[in-house]
């Protein structure tokens, strides 16, 4: 995703090989756990290139093919709960995901007339390599700060993406759908950092 000049040609090659593009899902992402004052510019650029610049290039390339074909299309950008709320130590990640969320909204406005919907998915803590939980079942893990009490499964995120890419979501655009077990309702830091269930009792 950081090889930006190579991204659009890949879309063109896929369309040539497959004949069309109906949906694009931008799911690649990276982040860091670095205090703001310690973030150097190369780290900042690496996260922004992966999480914002790359999706922009791919969105534009895919949308041009969709507009040219005249059949509409679907674009889904995977952001994060940190599209909406900050997290200490994640300045580049939060900036990129918030940017991708607003980019999705602008694209939704501009591409709607072509029958192209653009939406964002904002996952919370999901059992993936990025959270150090590759191939782990999240259902047995306890997360006091998440109302549903556990991390999410990547398939739960994929199900919402599949819905947004399908015909049933033809009137959904410009939305950001949180798939977070209720984490956003708890505040930006509490969801993944609370160690007690005391909040449940008021």
Report what the structure shows:
- Strands 1-2-3-4 form a 4-stranded parallel beta sheet, with helices on both faces.
- The longest helix has 29 residues, at 41-69.
- The termini are far apart.
- By secondary structure, it is of the alpha/beta class.
- The model has no long low-confidence stretch (mean pLDDT 92).
- The protein has 5 helices and 4 strands, in the order H-E-H-E-H-E-H-E-H.
- Helix 2 (41-69) links the parallel strand 1 and strand 2 (73-78).
- It is globular, with a radius of gyration of 18 Å.
- Helix content is 40%, strand content 11%.
- The chain has a single domain (4-201), classed as 3-Layer(aba) Sandwich (Rossmann fold), CATH 3.40.50.
Give the second-level CATH assignment, the architecture: 3-Layer(aba) Sandwich
The proportion of residues in beta strands is 5-15%
What is the tally of helical segments? 5
Question: Kindly, what is the distance between the CA atoms of the first and last residues, rounded to a whole number of angstroms?
Answer: 45 Å
Main pleated-sheet profile:
4 strands, parallel
Oligomeric organization of the protein chains? single chain
Tally of discrete structural domains: 1
Mean model confidence by pLDDT: 92
SSE series: HEHEHEHEH
Number of strands: 4
CATH topology: Rossmann fold
Uncertain spans: none
